[in-house]
Design goal:
Pfam families: Kinesin. It is found in: Cytoplasm, Cytoskeleton. It comes from Dibothriocephalus latus (Fish tapeworm). Keywords: ATP-binding, Cytoplasm, Cytoskeleton, Motor protein, Nucleotide-binding. There is one protein chain. The chain has a 4-stranded antiparallel beta sheet. It has a 3-stranded antiparallel beta sheet with strand order 2-3-4, with no helix packed on it. It has a domain of 75 residues. The chain is α+β, with helices and mostly antiparallel strands. A hairpin with an 8-residue loop joins β8 and β9. It is built from 6 helices and 11 strands.
């Protein structure tokens, strides 16, 4: 058997193995639950307070203690205590990032009242990044690893042919007062977008997508969008008030 035929056989076996791993991995994710709900208890605003309304009983249970001495218990897929670190939060989400690279749609959403810690959990400070940065960092790592493997299984690059199997793009939109705004548009976050049903898919039409290859590029786009978020919100408010 020639080296060329042997290489083609290795490539076929590798891709077959990848496909089997992908199916088994995502079957496991589905068994854990396509929808998972986590609860993160934020530290008290007053460290010296003698009464904490919420208490994590274990990894899956949360107790809500009311002033009248009654208590209600709630169940979640995972409960994080106030001492939980950002790394611990993302550790419970890392597996679904692999599913993104496998072609599955994934949504990670933080929900809570003002001051509950959504921004800290999702964005975080530079020295302790949140879910957003960690998820994109992990996705880039997976993509680069798979690109390197495919390159090693190719004898040589064919001139003029792009052998990249993945491309990474980022968009950033804001929903404010039922209006969708593109935060990284060339018009500096002032472009209002439409939400349309295209067959079985709901799509934000006209959103700007920026190609990224490095974490630094992601930071730049997120910083730009975060800056425009406040500007866009102010302009929408003023328009509606008038």
């Amino acid at each position: 058997m020639s080296n060329f035929n042997r290489l083609n056989e290795m490539k076929a076996l590798y891709r077959q193995e990848v496909e089997q791993r992908r199916q088994l991995y995502n079957t496991l994710i589905e068994l854990r639950g396509n929808i998972r709900v986590f609860c993160r208890v934020r530290p008290s605003f007053d460290p010296g307070a003698s009464f904490d309304m919420f208490e994590a009983l274990d990894e899956n249970s949360l107790a809500a203690k009311l002033p009248n001495s009654t208590q209600r218990n709630y169940q979640f897929d995972r409960v994080f205590r106030p001492s939980a670190r950002q790394e611990e939060i993302f550790g419970e989400l890392r597996d679904i990032i692999t599913s993104v690279a496998d072609g599955y749609n994934v949504c990670i959403m933080a929900y809570g009242q003002t001051g509950s810690g959504k921004t800290f959990t999702m964005q975080g400070p530079p020295n302790s990044p949140g879910v957003n940065i960690r998820a994109l960092r992990e996705l880039l790592r997976i993509v680069k690893g798979r690109q390197r493997m495919e390159y090693k299984l190719t004898i040589k690059r064919v001139q003029g042919v792009n052998l990249n199997l993945f491309s990474s793009q980022v968009s950033m939109v804001e929903i404010y007062n039922e209006t969708i705004v593109d935060l990284i548009s060339p018009s500096n976050g002032c472009e209002v977008l439409d939400l349309r049903n295209l067959g079985a898919t709901v799509t934000v039409v006209g959103a700007t997508w920026a190609s990224v290859e490095t974490e630094e590029q992601i930071h730049q786009i997120l910083a730009r969008g975060e800056k425009n978020r406040h500007v866009a919100s102010t302009k929408i408010n003023s328009t509606r008030l008038v």
